[in-house]
Design goal:
This protein is about 0% helix and about 50% strand. Strand 5 and strand 6 (about 60) form a beta hairpin. By secondary structure, it is an all-beta fold. The chain contains no helices and eleven strands. The relative contact order is 0.31. The protein has strands at about 5, 10, 20-25, 35-40, 45-50, 60, 70-75, 80-85, 90-100, 105-110, 115-120.
C-alpha cells in the first residue's frame, strides 16, 4: 500500500525556519519525482517544489526560491523541505506527493494525497 506521511509543521515566527519530512512506504522515492505542495485557507493547492528521480534536479515556485530547499534521503525513503526566512504568506497545510514539471511549474501527477502538515507563520 502506497503511503506518504508528512510531519514537521508547527507555529513559527516570521523569519524563522522549519524542516518538513515526507516518509514514504510501499514504494521507493528514488524511482519517482516527489514534491511538496501547499494549500492556504481559501486558496487552491499550489506546487512548491519537486525533486527529480535522480535527486539532482530541483524546481521551485518563484514565491519560495532562495528560501526553501528540497532534498531526500534514499536510505530513509524520506523527502524533506527545509524552509527558511518564513513569511506569514507561507502559512498553509503542506503536502507531499508525486510531481511533474509542466511549463516550468510544479504540478501533481497523482490523485493520492496524505493528511498534510500545518505550517503557521505568525508573530
Amino acid at each position: 500500500q502506497l503511503q506518504l506521511a508528512e510531519s514537521g509543521g508547527g507555529l513559527v515566527h516570521p523569519g524563522g525556519s522549519l524542516r518538513l519530512s515526507c516518509a514514504a512506504s510501499g514504494f521507493t522515492v528514488a524511482l519517482y519525482r516527489i514534491g511538496w505542495f501547499r494549500q492556504a485557507p481559501g486558496k487552491e493547492r499550489e506546487g512548491v517544489s519537486c525533486i527529480s528521480t535522480g535527486g539532482t534536479r530541483t524546481t521551485y515556485a518563484d514565491s519560495v526560491k532562495g528560501r526553501f530547499t528540497i532534498s531526500r534521503d534514499t536510505a530513509k525513503n524520506t523527502v524533506y523541505l527545509q524552509m527558511n526566512s518564513l513569511k506569514p504568506e507561507d502559512t498553509a497545510v503542506y503536502y507531499c506527493a508525486r510531481c511533474q514539471i509542466l511549463n516550468g511549474l510544479v504540478r501533481s501527477s497523482t490523485d493520492y494525497w496524505g493528511n498534510g502538515t500545518l505550517v503557521t507563520v505568525s508573530s
